[in-house]
Amino acid sequence: MQLERILQSQGFGTRRECRALVRLERVTVRGEMVDDPFVDVDTADLDYTVDGEAWRYHEPSYVMLHKPAGHECSQKPKHHPAVFSLLPSPLVVRAIQCVGRLDEDTTGLLLLTDDGQLIHKLTSPKHGVLKRYVATVKHAVDDAMLKALGGGVVLNDAPDVSVAAHAVEQLDEHRIAITIGEGKYHQVKRMVAAAGNRVEALHRVAVGRLELPADLAPGEWRWFDPAEV
Questions:
Q1: Per-residue pLDDT at 21
Q2: Is 49 within 8 Å of 25 (Cβ atoms)?
Q3: Catalytic residues
Q4: Is 62-124+210-223 a domain of CATH 3.30.70.580?
């Protein structure tokens, strides 16, 4: 693929802008300066730099973010900064999207991609991809609460349907691990409220078999590795 097209596909601007980057000797390919924007480059395992910053070719892009509190999963946030402000500009230009949403005050694992098919597969209720959270609750956890969450509670917007956790486990006096397969609005918070308690803090630790890496600090992001994809 021509170098200018590679840069454009990776979010570095229009073809004209990417052409200028190359001609101004701001791009290296596999450690070598390149000044011809039309040179054909093999994209397999491609490492390159733009203005000295190292990049690897990804098509499509798969990213995980340790979402901190105080950020909205929206391109047009209303009250808080968008999670996209935590990502480098080329990813934003590529129109990377959140795979589902976490509330402004919910922290933890957030997946982002420009792969529309994957977004559908991970968010569609019919696929039932499990999400695991750790919830800190206001009142001490008791057996009645755990039984209600595991057996099913009724939410206000669906009084004829009982919603149950796929798994629920007490971690300590005020924390539970809860796994759900749906993605209803404020679902964990509403389920806990229906079980007679209140969520004070919520942290997502896993989506499917993919867990939040222990070494990924709040506000940090990284690419998926091939096994995770």
A1: 97
A2: no
A3: 103
A4: yes
